[in-house]
């Protein structure tokens, strides 16, 4: 697998994301996902990406896949790997879910009776 410097990964801020019809891939761990995530996001933890390439191949290939984590570090590594492997056209979301929340975008959680939050 080719090594791509995460600093060379295409990156956008949350405010630059399209407001609808966005393909969002959340690469955080299951506990972070359960606490709060974007409603339409697809969840595949960073460490699971190589084993779940078949699922990734099912994502739309006519538009970029925006990759998000908590603050942008893991998603940059994931986007670099996805682009190098030729799996999808991946773009890192700078600032991650922390910025998502700061920008006023909605989140949902999987924990009943507990308000959604970004861990």
Automatic annotation (TrEMBL):
Alphabetically ordered keywords of this record: Transferase
Family annotation (InterPro entries): GlpE_sulfurtransferase, Rhodanese-like_dom, Rhodanese-like_dom_sf
A Pfam family matched in the record: Rhodanese
Keyword Coiled coil found: no
Record has Signal as a keyword: no
Any GO molecular function: transferase activity
Protein name: Rhodanese-related sulfurtransferase
